[in-house]
Amino acid sequence: MEGEPTAELIRAQLRRLRMNAELSQEEFGKLVHFSGSQVSAVELGQRPLDRFLLKRADEVLGTGGLLTSLLKLAERDGQPSWFRPWLEAERQAQQLRCYQPSLVPGLLQTENYARTIIRTDAMLGDDEVEKRLAVRMDRQSILTQPNLTTFVAVMDELVLRRADESFRGLMSQQIAHLIECVERSKVTGSVGGRR
Questions:
Q1: Which pTM was predicted?
Q2: How many Cα atoms sit within 13 Å of 66 on the Cβ side?
Q3: DSSP 81-150
Q4: CA-to-CA distance for 172 and 123, rounded, in angstroms?
Q5: Rounded Cα distance, 101 and 118, in Å
Q6: Which of 64-68, 93-97, 182-186 has the lowest mean pLDDT?
Q7: pLDDT at residue 1, rounded to an integer
Q8: FRET pair for 46, CA 20 to 30 Å: which of 37, 59, 151, 185?
């Protein structure tokens, strides 16, 4: 669900940068570890934009991260319209507070936990799951922003005791990640249990 105008811009920039470097699609493909036909399919919009290809393209073409930055914009543009103001507010916030009674908050989720949560929507294909996962992981960069003073997260203790089949093996990794996050000076956590 990439923002179409931004996705088109990325394809055009990729094509322009490749041609300015005087590389054929085959030559460029070898440098970024893709086939020439895969490069062609991305440039023509017949294949979804690929984060790895764009990262390698930025390195090979010396763009300073232009293509991956544009991809982040495309992914943000692909968010539901009701969520975009929240993303912007989240980026500008000096303090964030979150109450999550049934899940680990998105800003504190490990990649495996987040992927499992996103996959609970049976209507999503693998590509869409990975796009949403990339956006969620990218959002976590705000926890290291210098303007953020604190992030306070409160969740129910049952979230940490989750033992159903789809979460087997994920929770120990997730709990270790939460401890790491709380050890950061900007992240504060609280777990409430039911008696």
A1: 0.60
A2: 15
A3: TTTHHHHHHHHH-SEEEEEESSS--GGG--HHHHHHHHTT-TT--HHHHHHHHHHHHHHGGGGG-TT--E
A4: 28
A5: 17
A6: 182-186
A7: 39
A8: 59
